[in-house]
Amino acid sequence: MGPKRIAVVVLAVIALIGVVIAVIAGAIAVLPRQNRFAAGAQTSYTAPPSPVSPAATPAVANPTPTGATPTVPKPDLPRPVLAAASPRVVPNKAAVANKIRAVRVKGVTGSYSGSVVDVSTGKVLYAHNATRGYIPASTMKLLTSTAALSILGPDHTFKTSVVSPKRGQIILVGGGDPYLARHARSDYPKRATITGLARAAARELKQDKISKVSLGYDASLFKGPAWNSRWPGFYGDQVSRTSALWVDEGHVGYGGVRYKDPAKEAATAFAAALSKQGIKVTGTHSARAPKAAPVVARVSSMSLERIVEHLLMVSDNDAAEVIFRQAAIGAGRPGSIAEATKVVRAELTKLGIWDVGMTISDGSGLARQTKVPADSMVKMLRLAAGEQHPELRPVITGLSVAGVEGSLKRQYSDDQSLAGRGVVRGKTGTLNKVRARAGVLRATDGSVLAYAFLINKPKNEYNAMVWLDRVTTALSTCGCR
Questions:
Q1: SS (H, E, C) 305-374
Q2: How far is CA 439 from CA 139, 270, 327, 468, in A?
Q3: Is 160 within 8 Å of 175 (Cβ atoms)?
Q4: Sign of the dihedral defined by the CA atoms of residues 137, 139, 141, 146, in that order
Q5: 46-49, long-range: CB < 8 A, 24+ apart
Q6: CA distance 130 to 374
Q7: What is the average pLDDT across 358-367?
Q8: Cα–Cα distance for residue pair 133/130, rounded to 1 Å
Q9: Which end of the chain is more exposed for a tag (fewer CB within 10 A), N or C?
C-alpha cells in the first residue's frame, strides 16, 4: 500500500472518530440535567423555561422591533429548598396555659412549682407557684453546674499530681478530678487514669535511677466533713464520701458499695500500678505535700465542659458534689460544704438567678432541705441557652434528649408523650415523694421554651412522672399563637 493510500485511510479513520465524538457529545447535551445526581457531576440546577406564547417570540431572522424589550434568559439559579422565615411571634400565654391544664393524670394535683418562659424574649408564658421553693431533687445539679462554669470556665481542668519532697519519697496529690479512673476506658469522654499517671511517674523515676519509693497521699484540697450531715445514712449507696482524691468515684465495683476512705484506696491502686512499672513501693501513708515539692508527673481531667455534660446526662451525685466544692475553691474559698453553699449562692445572685424562695444544702440535690422555685430554674436555663453567657452552654448540651439518652431514655413511651421523643430536652429529679423536670424544647410554632416543673408529695409518684412526660410533650406540640 503506497504512502498516498495510507494517508487517505488515516484521514478517514480520524474523520470517523470525530463523527463518533460529536454524536456522543450531542447525546450528553440533550440529557435532562436534573437527572444527573452523580457525586460531583451536578454543579447547578437549571429550572425549565417558562412557557412563552409563539406570538410573543420573534423569529430568529427578524431583528427586535423598535421600542420592544428584548427577551432576557432567566439566570441558571437553584430553586429554594427552605421556606422564608416567618415573622417572630411570641406564644400566647392563655394558649400555653390551656395546653398545660388540658393534661390530666390521676393522682397529680396542683401541688407543684411550674414555669415556662420564651427563651428569645424572656416573656413568662406560664407560672404556677413559680416563686415558691420546692424540693428540686437532681435538677439542683443544673444550678451547681451553672455556678461552677461561671466561676471556673468551661475549659478548666483538675490535675492529679505526683510530687517528690526528697529522693526516694513521692506523694500522690489529689486535685479534685471527679472522673479519675483506675484504668483507661473505651467510653467517651476520655478520663485521666491512675495507670497513666503511674506510667509517667515510673519513667521519670527510672531516669533518676530510682527503683524504690515510699508513697504518701494527700487529699487535703477539700476541707471539712466528707459526708453531708443533711443526707440520711442509707444514702451510702447513692453517693460517696466526697474526696479530692479517689478513683472510679469511690465505688468498690459496679454496685452501690462505696469505699470508706476513697483517698487511701486511690493510693493503693497507684502503688499497684507503680509496681507493674518496675517501681517498688515500700509503704503508703497519709501525708501533706510541701507546696515547693518538685512535680514528678501529672495528669489532667477532662474539661469542666465535658464533666458538666456527663454528670447531667447520667445524673451523677458524686461528680456534682465535687464541682460544688471546686466552685468554692475557684472563688478563692476553702473547698468545704459550708463555703461551697455560700459561693454558689453568691454566684447565682450575681447571675440574676437567685430567688428569695431558695435554700441550698448540697450540690447534688440529695438534701431535702434544698428548696428551689421553678422561676429560678427557667431563669438559669434561659441564661445558659442565650448568647450573653456562652460559658454556660454545657448546661444545655448536657440535657438528656427524651426517649434517646440519659435519664430520659426510657421516658416518653405512651401515646400521649411519643411526640416529645427527640424533641424535649431535660434534666430529671427523683427522690421519695419528689418528681421534677427542667429543660428546654422547641415547639412546633418555632418557639424555644425553657420549662421547669417541680412536684412535691404527689399522691402517685409514677403518675407524676407520666404527667411530666405528657405536659412537656404538650408544650413541644404547641402552636400557641
A1: HHHHHHHHHHCCHHHHHHHHHHHHHHCCCCECHHHHHHHHHHHHHHCCCCCCCCECCCCCCCCCCCEECH
A2: 9, 40, 23, 12
A3: yes
A4: negative
A5: 46/76, 47/74, 47/77, 47/79, 49/74
A6: 5
A7: 97
A8: 8
A9: N
Q: Give CA–CA dist 3/302, Å, rounded.
A: 82
How far is Cα 378 from Cα 399, in angstroms, rounded to an integer? 14
* Beta-strand pair 169-173/159-166: antiparallel
* Distance (Å) of CA 40 to CA 33, 36, 102, 430: 13, 10, 52, 53
Average pLDDT for 300-327: 97
- Amino acid (one-letter) located at 225: P
Which pLDDT band holds residue 11 (cuts at 50, 70, 90)?
low
CA distance 451 to 437: 8
Q: What single letter denotes the amino acid at residue 411?
A: Q
Confirm if 219 and 274 have CB atoms less than 8 A apart: no
Give every strand in the sheet of 169-173, ordered side by side: 280-286, 212-218, 169-173, 159-166, 295-300
The pTM (predicted TM-score) of the whole model is 0.81
Q: Which three cell numbers stand for residue 273?
A: 500500678
Q: pLDDT tens digits for 395-439?
A: 999 999 999 999 999 999 999 999 999 999 999 999 999 999 999
**pLDDT of res. 78:** 57
Residue ranges of alpha helices (H) inside 157-295 are 194-207, 262-276
Q: Which three cell numbers stand for residue 411?
A: 421516658
Beta bridge partners, 404, equal none
- The cell numbers describing 60, all together, are 430568529
Cis peptide before 87 (omega within 30 of 0): no
Q: What is the pLDDT of residues 274-284, one digit of tens each?
A: 999 999 999 99
Give the chain's length. Answer: 481
Better-scored residue on pLDDT, 40 or 430: 430
Gap between the Cα atoms of 142 and 377, Å rounded: 8
Instruction: Kindly state the average pLDDT of the residues 202-222.
Output: 97
Tell me how far apart the alpha carbons of residues 315 and 138 are, in angstroms, rounded to a whole number.
7
- pLDDT value at 41 more than 60: no
All three cell numbers of 331:
472563688
Instruction: State the DSSP string of 262-286.
Output: HHHHHHHHHHHHHHHTT-EEEEEEE
Alpha-carbon distances of 286 from 163, 164, 169, 174, 227, rounded to whole Å: 14, 14, 13, 12, 19
Q: Which three-class secondary structure state does DSSP give residue 34? A: helix
Q: Which of 197, 125, 124 is nearest to 159 (CA)?
A: 197
